[in-house]
Amino acid sequence: MPLFNVLYDTDDIVNESLEEIDGGNSFRNSSELVHSQVLEDYMPTPEYSYSYTSEKADITDLMLEMPESSESPESRRMSFLENDKLTGFQSKRKRSIQANPEGLESETLGRKVRKSTLVEDFVSVFEKGDPEYMEMINMHLIPYCSLNELDPDLFVGHLQNKRDHLWAYEINKKSNITSNRLVRFANHDNVNFYEPRVFRYLRTKNTCKRHKREGLCSFCKPTKQDYQNDFNNLFFDLNSSGYLHHLTKQHGVFSNGSEMPLPKLIGLHPELKSNKTSAKIGHVYVAVCPICNEKVKVQDLSPESQVSGNRFLAYFRHMLTHNVKKNSGKGR
């Protein structure tokens, strides 16, 4: 019988299929334009410039930071420190040697480097309180920030006594999350969302020393596989900052336990992608930081989008520039 089979809750399992909203229309469109004409037509004018940031905002495409299927067990435990190196690959080009009609060798680029730039003004703006804003937040952000249904007592009461088990479990007394029903972004100023509710460490003969100490994520929703492998993919290393990077970048929690604020607004914004030979205008979704008013490009939030995983990863990563340091364990 699989572990915790009697405690199995189908509502708490990740559903790999995305929900589709009826009646939605795609906002995305693009057109190939002559590069010089694009720069002339799409440079912002002061009278129409949006006030949340500078008129011409260069942005970095942060979608390379995480794989699309970021909710998979394997990607949960990938090293975010190693993953940050992906941004360094943007400047590398694959080159291939081809023979031209004259028999000479010519070098061609296997990958074109494009520069992404936000231009002009918002096409659509959704502010807090708007139905569209709340729908996007509830569908694409809240599921990755809400608490899971795992009870800390289950680890100590069940796995602790499992014969020949490699891990010992311990309830974290510093955690003040008293219920799995706590609602995120509801002014829980005194709740520390960072502290893991359960620790685990490798069993050794020396009971006074903790080897390979890991913390249980309170937000990742367990899959069928997790129930069968003792929830190994929900624990993250506390010594190598794996737990720190996971909580901050995946679940929007500062290391002092407080929550990262929700975007000031979400909007659809024109974006110019260009290289030396071509340019293209498309529309992307942008979240505006409530602290510095910077526009942060996020993944497609349209109802028709089939993008999987947390679509606000780039926004959470940006919020780390406003990092709130650790304190004595209080939320704020």
TrEMBL record:
A Pfam family reported for this protein in Swiss-Prot or TrEMBL: Rua1_C
InterPro entries (UniProt xref): Rua1_C (IPR028012)
Protein origin, superkingdom: Eukaryota
Transcription regulator Rua1 C-terminal domain span: 189-321
Protein name: Transcription regulator Rua1 C-terminal domain-containing protein
Organism: Ogataea parapolymorpha (strain ATCC 26012 / BCRC 20466 / JCM 22074 / NRRL Y-7560 / DL-1)
